[in-house]
Design brief:
The chain is mainly alpha-helical and 188 residues long. The protein has a domain at 4-133: Up-down Bundle (Four Helix Bundle (Hemerythrin (Met), subunit A)). The protein is built from 6 helices and no strands. The protein has helices at residues 4-22, 39-57, 74-90, 106-128, 136-155, 171-178.
Length: 188
């Protein structure tokens, strides 16, 4: 069975996995659009996003710890964890009710996972010189999410204040700007 959330994740996940698989070991210390994160730091965070949002779908607590997830075979494990993430959100029960920790509808929690997966894949692609095209549906979800939750997310520090998107920006670039990312960011 599938849910809208699992279908969205199934569209976005292969794009993130492709970026992660293409990151070379000699790129791990490069800067990213997330000013306080190197590629290694952001990979670790994205890996934790995938693992923890899988747990949240199963209505188990997330564990944001310092365990080093970038050990031998981390690219393949990341790909496997994204498949598990999709499977977890395919259960209709994952979307029922309100998340006890953050008090948001569980569907909104699933959207947060999708947005993190998509935006951090872009961050990593930009940092490592890779092309990236976001899933169109993920872009639409990001805009709808920001319409509902943008101010709250900024107050909570989940993302930065919006920046101006250049004229004629793509829908995804406009979503990035709403999330506080500079669409033209470059490591140089």
């Amino acid at each position: 069975m599938a849910t809208k959330t699992s279908e969205l994740l199934a569209e976005a996940a292969p794009r993130a996995v492709a970026v992660v698989r293409a990151i070379r070991d000699d790129q791990l210390d490069l800067p990213t659009p997330c000013a306080d994160y190197s590629v290694r730091d952001l990979l670790h965070h994205l890996y934790q996003v995938v693992v923890n949002f899988k747990e949240l779908a199963a209505k188990r607590p997330a564990k944001w710890d310092k365990t080093d997830l970038l050990t031998d075979g981390w690219r393949d494990r990341f790909a496997a964890e994204t498949e598990r993430l999709i499977e977890a959100w395919a259960d209709p029960a994952a979307l029922e009710g309100v998340s006890p920790r953050v008090g948001l509808p569980r569907e909104t929690v699933g959207e947060m996972g999708l947005i993190d997966l998509t935006v951090h894949a872009w961050d990593l692609a930009r940092a490592t010189g890779q092309p990236f095209e976001a899933a169109p549906d993920a872009t639409a979800v990001a805009h709808a999410f920001m319409d509902r939750m943008g101010d709250t997310g900024q107050r909570m520090g989940a993302f930065a204040a919006p920046v101006d998107a250049p004229p004629n920006s793509s829908p995804f670039d406009r979503a990035l700007a709403r999330l506080g990312r500079h669409p033209a960011w470059s490591p140089h």
